[in-house]
Amino acid sequence: MAQAGDTQPTPEAITVHEQSRTLEVAFSDGARFRIPFELLRIHSPSAEVQGHGAGQEVLQTGKRHVTLVQIEPVGHYALRPTFSDGHDSGLYTWAYLYELGRDQEQLWRAYEERLAEAGVDRDAPMAGRAAGGHGCGGH
Predict the structure, then answer these.
(1) In whole angstroms, what is the distance from residue 82 CA to residue 72 CA?
(2) pTM of the model
(3) Is the pLDDT confidence value at 128 over 70?
(4) What angle do helix axes 104-118 and 94-102 make, rounded to 10 degrees?
(5) Where are the domains of the chain?
(6) What's the confidence (pLDDT) of residue 129?
(7) What architecture (CATH level 2) is domain 11-118?
(8) Rounded CA gap, 129 and 55, in Å?
């Protein structure tokens, strides 16, 4: 929860670049990031992707060509994108967008390692999930 005096950077400009499939976010501290749609999608903060606890994350594949169909503000703290694969349940807070932008090189490396461990590549179709749900029955 934000406290008085917090200096968490907030977005000053958000631009969707459809051709390069990136979301550009300029923050109040001068940082500017171009975050690929694929990175946003594979690191969605939703339960469908993150699970409900450590070790329950679902490895996302087949998202290289995903696009943004829509992006909506949620209050004054987050965005809710709708991706071309139908995924729309992730709320990306300003802090999370900043983290994704700042840490994208490390996130890509970790993703590639997870793919290698699973013996799949990033273009493999998603396995074992019905479209539009994550199967926990809790939502």
Answers:
(1) 8
(2) 0.85
(3) no
(4) 80
(5) 11-118
(6) 47
(7) 2-Layer Sandwich (3.30)
(8) 17
